[in-house]
Amino acid sequence: MQDRTDLQSNRYHLVTQQQIGSTQLRRGSGERNMAESYRIIPDSRRVETEVDIRKVRAAVLAHLFYEDQVEYSKRYLDRLPDGIDCIILSAKEEILAQFPSDRYIKIKKENRGRDISALLVAAREAIFQYQYICFVHDKREKSPDDREFVELWRKNLWDNMLQSPEYVANLIDIFERESRIGLLVPLPPHQGDNGVWLKGNWGGTFGLVRNLAKLLGLAVEICYDAPPVTYSTVFWARTKILRKLYSREWTYSDFPDEPMRDYGELNHAVERILQYVAEDAGYDTAVALSSTFAAAFILQLKEEADRMWERAGSVFGIRNYRDIDVYGQRAETIRQFQKAHPDLYLYGAGSAGKDCLGMCTLLGIVPAGILVTDRKDAPDEIEGIRILSVSELGISDRTGILITVYETDYQNAIINSLDRMGFYAYMVY
Question: Which of 3, 17, 75, 417 has a CA 20 to 30 Å removed from the CA of 351?
């Protein structure tokens, strides 16, 4: 165990467009690649284009429920570009009353089903009057502990769908110029300093999504190992890709009564099926990022990455990606070595010994002790693990020794000493 993406210029972007990641979906004996395409879109200037969005039939549909979030939502909705209709859907008259009828179309709905019933039931008759629609909804934390996460997620949803009039116009321009794009969605949720991505999480809906796909007659493969990129009912879409979603006559009774569970309901299945609806219609899904949001998010990720590397270096001695691979190999080797020799000792109390002790802690392994050549000036223990001289150790089949020093000469001296003493189950960390 001794340690011996094409970039292309694009008018939608300030600088570049890049295929950032990909997911492999298995189909029979072959594979098809479903790349998650990321679009960074200018939000402070209109790109040069021949597209006149005033001649494009487009609408924003906003489901609003929380009265204390109306002001936040209105900041985005009030600055939509000319020619874009705005439809407010709510179960509360007091919210609808805050939007003047000469500027907004208002639809009263039942609360059952929340934003999903707003999309599938209340807005059904309006949606197909348009070529493109954006659907957004408000969001509020359920407890103070969720505040930071929800604030970041809400900003992600609204900024990346409706950042500015210029941004909306540029986003619609993507549909007009990129014939393969059918659905534009925000980033998967990211939990700030906790570094938690919900990307790759079915949220207990995999079976529900597959059943819903069958109900809608979708001819796409939905694989557990290739989770979706849609995690909220917030998106821009070509309305024609949604027709199979409306092939069923949805009613409010299709949705669960309140209080609704956080996971595993029809609502959560609809959120995750959107990209498969687009795929079935022959269109791709892309993640849309406003240039302002992208810049701030990249800085946030850099700061998080810097902290992670600092911790990885100080605790485990990991300095780069190669070290991570080496660390993984070491971890598996230690597991197997400890399985064969349950009484595991670390030989060395320096930095290498502390690195190895940290790894053992992560692996759930408690060393039987830390060995030193000479107990003189050595402490009695390190992090609760006793220190003893190698001369105090008896030889048995259960005894395994990890030599945890970095200097090659010192390693060789320890190996020669263990050989002379009759130890045979040892290895260099």
Answer: 417
